[in-house]
């Protein structure tokens, strides 16, 4: 426990040393049609990355903090079509989620689509809260147009809660999101669990623009690795769920963070 507290304090201090950038200043870096490259590591490597990023990146600053809080609820069909699209390696594939940015009290209903070329397109509309059924007509119109479904066809399956650091390179051509302290709740099984020391890094950019962080990641020997919070969270909180394609990844993750995320996986 003391070790975790110490590394968390170190991460906080290193983030605070980065030059801040506001949401308004980031308005031109939406990257809604982008390529995403994910990396999975632990908090010790994150601290080292933040040391090496000094002078090369801004840290997003919102409501007095450089570490933001997020709540996301994933919706799926009765047969978990969106989960199995990913599990079975289908492309294009989609996910439907409701995301709340806690510090700014903003919530969006989103549809993410990944095409055959690895590009991710995200479309969203603002909604009053996680209770999207309160604006059913608007939500249904959006979902039917983007995912060919309505709220009647899907239901909440897994919710996650996590902290995020967002970095922007000095050239303002890319965004790096760093997620940690991820906690999951499964609406179908009522199981809850967390990811411990795990850190999920995602590099978001249009095309192959130069990226300072890629050199840092190579130096730290952190290699690209796919990671879906929805799919991994589903596996971790539903032991009866088919997860053959994720078994190797779960073993690797357990070794990485030095703990058993789920003893029966």
Report how far apart the termini are: 25 Å
Which superfamily, in CATH terms, is the homologous superfamily?
Hypothetical Protein Pfu-838710-001
User: How many structural domains are formed by the residues?
Assistant: 1
| Class from secondary-structure proportions | alpha+beta
Which strands sit side by side, in order, in the main sheet?
Answer: 2-7-6-5-4-8-9-11
Q: What proportion strand? A: 35-45%
- Biggest sheet statistics: 8 strands, antiparallel, barrel
Parts with pLDDT < 50 across at least 5 consecutive residues: none
Series of secondary-structure elements, N-terminal to C-terminal: HEEHEEHEEEHEEEEHHH
Summed over residues and divided by their number, the pLDDT gives a mean of: 91
Q: Regarding CATH, which class?
A: Mainly Beta
Helix content: 25-40%
Number of helices: 7
The number of E-state strands comes to: 11
CATH topology: Hypothetical Protein Pfu-838710-001
The best one-word shape is globular
Rg calculated over all Cα atoms: 18 Å
